[in-house]
Amino acid sequence: MAQLGNLRHRPARRLTQLYAGLALYGVSMALMIRSGLGLDPWDVFHQGLARQTGLSFGTVTIAVGALVLLLWIPLRQRPGLGTVSNVVVIGLVVDATLAVLPPGEGLPVRAALLVVGIVANGAATGLYLGAGLGPGPRDGLMTGFVARHPRWSVRLVRTVIEVTVLALGWLLGGTVGLGTVAYALAIGPLAQFFIPMFAIPTRPADAYAT
Question: Which residues cross the membrane (predicted)?
Answer without folding.
Answer: 18-35, 55-73, 80-101, 107-131
